[in-house]
Amino acid sequence: MSLLPILDDPRLAERTSSATRKVLQERVQPAPYQQYLSTEHMSMLRLLVAAILPQSAVGTHVDLAETIDRRLAAGKNPGFRYVVLPPDGEAYGRGLTAFFKVLEATLRKSFQEISASELEEHIRRACEGDLDEQAVFPLSTFMRMVRTDAVRFWMAHPDAMQAIGYFGFADGATGNEGWREIGPNSAAPFERAGELSQQVGAR
Amino acid sequence: MKKPADMKKYSTADVVDAVIIGTGAGGSPLLYKLATAGRSVVALEAGEWFEDPVTDFPTDELEAPIYWKDERLSGGADPTSFGANNSGKGVGGSMIHWGAYAPRPSAENLKLKSTDGAAMDWPVSLNDLKPHYEWLESFLGVSGPAQYPWDAERKYPLPPLPLNSSALYMSAGCEALGIRVAHAPIAAVSQAYTRPEYGTRNGCVNRGYCHQGCRNGAKATMDVTFLPAALKAGGEIRERSYVHGVERDSNCAITAVLYTDADGREQRQRCRAVFLCAGGVESPRQLLHWGIGNSSDQVGRNFMAHISTQVWATMQADTRPYKGFPASLITEDFLRAKDRPYAGGYLLQSYGILPVAWAEQVASGRNLVGQELTDYLLRYNNVAGIGMHGDTLPDPNNRVTLSDEKDQHGLAKPLITFSLGKNETVMSDHAEDRMRRILTAAGGTDLWSSKRTAHTVGTCRMGISAADSVVDPYGKSWDVPNLWIADNSVFPTSLAVNPALTIMALSLRTADKYLSN
């Protein structure tokens, strides 16, 4: 099996442009990088993103915390930031500290001991803006950024694509292939085959 | 577009007739018109020159290299998203990623004060713009229906593009409710199309990654239409050229544009006129940075983003929303709804969408956390959507200002403050109700909405008086004798339609006026 199992099917591979393949390959096997957040913040971020977007039932293992940390290390963002937040790197550090400080104060235990359901409930309250005042930090806006980062990096990962049955990347190697049938229930044969191999792989 | 080896190259010591800042929907038609008229003209573009779309544009949402990623600060009660949402960078500007949805505004939509008692009338009428719309639809190769239900006279040069799943469901739902629909006018050629100005373009192959850059020339981006024609006529484009200042003479006229070139060297291009075409955020930002053209105190004010609420539903069938032109169906029945409790109107468009963009809407609009979120994201291949673009009324407190933070060029980062008013929220609720009914009638379940905003409009408004506008009805600065603005920043109101076709029409009108002097 290759590093990019989603391209194991030659019919999918031949319909994927080399530029697209390069991007997907780098996403599955990224280059080494310098960790940006502190070790404690990374532990917090792992807990947080695992609670926002749990993957175990789906069978994917995308390291969302590391992907977010890579983004911060590279100084990249989508072209804007919410003005109520400091620059993204600082926002993550301060936001994680504030979020878990409020959580620990509320539940009177250390963040490592907090259950998934407690964490999930706390995330909901933070998203609703119920904790902004207590945290003395715009946690609701911070959570907006974290949630967006989590779903972006998961959806864009080839493992999630396979779980979803998404094959939009295989739209032709030259730009002149595209899709013939585009209405309901018109998956191309190789798309259905991709889904089948995924089910087999999961057993 | 390959960079032609024989592209005309002016020296910075030359005094060129005009410098154009930006190569999007505003700058490209101007470059073409001025070069064709024999003027010496240089376009400065901040972004890259993409020479081969097959290798430059991966089929991927995160690594598309075509967006303006310089950090902007977004504030107000309803901060809008920039980057991939509405802001491009590169030779061709935001038109590299545009959705090519190309409806015209209605006559009434340009006259909101007269018809609805709101905001202001445009100092330009539909009759002023109509010849430009007609020429553009032919030049760009707009694909559309044989009969346009809301304008009996309108003829499109190419047959419509095929409908994807979302469009077919929207069509079925509208039919059940007695709402008229049509194939949307889309500026992508449904079959091979040849124009003497730029040659032959391939027909659209329904790739679906239109917002990440078209790979076969079907979509009417500037780099397959206006720009090759402009270069052939003697225009010059300098990519990776970041403008940061101007020099002026004692009459306040601009004598040179200052910029950092592709090699990081400071340059000074002497010129007789300047066309600022950098869009609804960068144009006012440049003017505020230069400190000119703002005797009205209107530069940066009245920032508008279309109210663009979407409704999503789960269908029983496989919809695969990544195929076909993302938005390919239209109804204009709500441009002037009879029972409307708001000023202005909106259009509805079917929505195909790519997974990351959809997941972002889910995260912001659906408020799911935990297993519920993961489970819902897995339903991507079964969703269908409809979206609105509605009038956002100008508000002087919604504005672009210079923040205290500096960017990598030493310029202040722009701060965009944006809050929706009552008119927008009432209109959004009206539209959401219609969209929910349509999707339900089409068999959709598990409906939810996302109150997003799109496009960057306003900020250098045109008007009939120097006291309350930045430019005159032709885009000429009231304050600086040889400065013109041609982009979405001159819009006095947002209109209820996508802006690009109107930006190009205004740009052609500005060019005609300049050339007639």
What features would you describe in this structure?
Chain A has helices spanning 10-14, 18-28, 39-52, 64-74, 88-107, 116-128, 132-135, 139-155, 158-164, 189-202; one strand spanning 80-82. Chain A has 203 residues and is mostly helical. In chain A, helix 3 crosses helix 4 and helix 5 crosses helix 8. The radius of gyration of chain A is 20 Å and the shape is elongated. Chain B is α/β, with parallel strands linked by helices. Helices cover 23% and strands 20% of the residues of chain B. Chains A and B meet through helix 2, strand 1, helix 6, helix 8 and helix 9 of A and helix 2, strand 3, helix 5, helix 8 and helix 9 of B.
Largest sheet of chain A: none
Distance between the termini of chain A: 16 Å
The ordered H/E elements of chain A are: HHHHEHHHHHH
Mean pLDDT over the full residue set of chain B:
97
Multimerization state:
heterodimer
Instruction: Label the structural class of chain A.
Output: mainly alpha
Per the principal axes of the C-alpha atoms, what is the gross shape of chain B? globular
Judged by helices, strands and strand pairing, the structural class of chain B is: alpha/beta
- Provide the β-strand percentage band of chain A: under 5%
Shape of chain A: elongated
The overall strand count of chain B is 20
**What portion of residues of chain B is helical?**
10-25%
Q: Which chains have the largest interface? A: A-B, 62 and 71 residues
**Proportion of helical residues of chain A:** 55-70%
